[in-house]
Write a structure and sequence with these properties.
The complex is a heterodimer of chains A (about 180) and B (about 150). Chain A starts with 5 loop residues before the first helix and ends with a helix. In chain A, the strands form two sheets. In chain A, strands 5-4-3-6-7 form a five-stranded mixed β-sheet. The relative contact order of chain A is 0.18. By secondary structure, chain A is α/β, with parallel strands linked by helices. Chain A has helices spanning about 5-25, 70-85, 100-110, 125-130, 155-175; strands at about 40-45, 50-55, 60-65, 90-95, 115-120, 135-140, 145-150. Chain A has one domain: Glutaredoxin. The N and C termini of chain B lie far apart (about 70 Å). Chain B has helices at about 1-20, 35-50, 65-80, 85-95, 110-145. Chain B has two domains: about 30-105, Helicase, Ruva Protein, domain 3 (Orthogonal Bundle), CATH 1.10.8.640; about 110-145. The chains are: A alpha/beta (about 180), B mainly alpha (about 150). At the A-B interface, α1 and α4 of A face α3, α4 and α5 of B.
């Protein structure tokens, strides 16, 4: 009797594995960029039309991919504006993804501009180099140019409090700012 | 009279079903031109094997998502103008979107269990069936002796 029960254990183990698998969020796709050197970010500023190169930043920065057509971006926008006040030293760079220049400028006029630079990416080719799946997406890059973390979807006060600010503090401690 | 009415109903049902068929085959809109048949084959093969990361249960060939469209365009550029081979295309995609973009996961340390589990299970089941059959034979013989 005892001998015959081990297939049952294997079956039980498989069921447990599948239950855990089913409870994972399939939308959570880990970015292969986290921990790697960030791709070079070169483009044109939406507002000043000057060339921008991330190699010139020399400090930690946030890259926030957004578009005027993106409702999640509107949701997180006030929290980004808040960040400019609570984290005055933090460089926030916008990646204006698959947008019309006029729409994007009007959107920033209306809702405020939290970005020091806004890189205009109408075709989404720059976004592709960053493995962008949708907007909004936010990356934290340290002073050495390494991607520290990535947040998919809108930043909420909870995510900022629990994840983004601790990541910044960690950078401060390591001298990565 | 009744038979012909039935026939009409069935023709209508058939027509309804037939009219559903094209819906599933309209996903791909662009028509790309290639220099060689190999390029075309490589494009089609890769488009079938790359997962659309937005609409996760479709490959980029079938998906109508804007990102899938961009990735098809990128794939086309790489195949036709950059003369990229399969490995270069896979590397490009994995570097950006991770292993998740591949419908056929690569054989590596963290996917080893995925690849060998079916064979292990098969081995275990065969072993179990054989030992079970043997055990019942022994039991049956025992019973015979007991009789």
């Amino acid at each position: 009797m005892k001998k015959a029960s081990w297939p049952l254990w294997i079956f039980g183990g498989l069921v447990a594995l599948f239950v855990v698998g089913l409870m994972l969020n399939p939308r959570h796709v880990p970015s292969p960029l986290v921990g790697q050197m960030a791709p070079a970010l070169q483009g044109t500023d939406l507002l000043s039309e000057q060339p921008i190169d991330s190699a010139d930043f020399n400090q930690a920065w946030l890259l926030n991919a957004w578009a005027s057509w993106c409702s999640g971006c509107y949701l997180e926008h006030s929290h980004l504006m808040e960040l400019t006040k609570t984290q005055p030293g933090l460089v926030i760079v916008g990646l204006n993804y698959k947008d019309q220049a006029d729409d994007a400028k009007a959107w920033l006029d209306q809702h405020g501009n939290p970005y020091q630079h806004v890189i205009f990416d109408p075709t989404g080719r720059i976004g592709m180099d960053w493995g962008l799946i949708g907007t909004p997406e936010t990356f934290l890059i340290d002073a050495q140019g390494r991607v520290v973390d990535k947040w998919m979807g809108a930043l909420t006060p909870e995510r900022i409090e629990r994840s983004l600010l601790p990541a910044l503090q960690k950078l401060d401690a390591k001298g990565g700012r | 009279m009744k038979a012909s009415a039935m026939k009409a109903v069935w023709s209508l049902v058939l027509l309804a079903f037939v009219s559903l068929i094209p819906l599933s085959a309209q996903a791909v809109i662009e028509s790309y031109q290639f220099d060689t048949a190999e390029q075309k084959l490589l494009y089609q093969k890769m488009a079938r094997e790359l997962r659309c990361v937005v609409c996760q249960n479709q490959n980029i060939l079938e998906s109508t998502a804007p990102l899938a469209q961009d990735l098809r365009q990128q794939l086309y550029q790489m195949v036709r103008y950059q003369n990229a081979d399969e490995k270069q295309i896979v590397d490009f995609m994995v570097q950006r979107y991770g292993d998740f973009v591949l419908y056929r996961p690569p054989l590596q340390a963290n996917t080893l269990i995925l690849w060998i589990a079916p064979f292990l299970l098969l081995l275990f089941s065969v072993y179990w069936v054989v030992s079970y059959v043997r055990q019942t034979q022994v039991d049956a013989q025992k019973e015979k002796h007991d009789d």
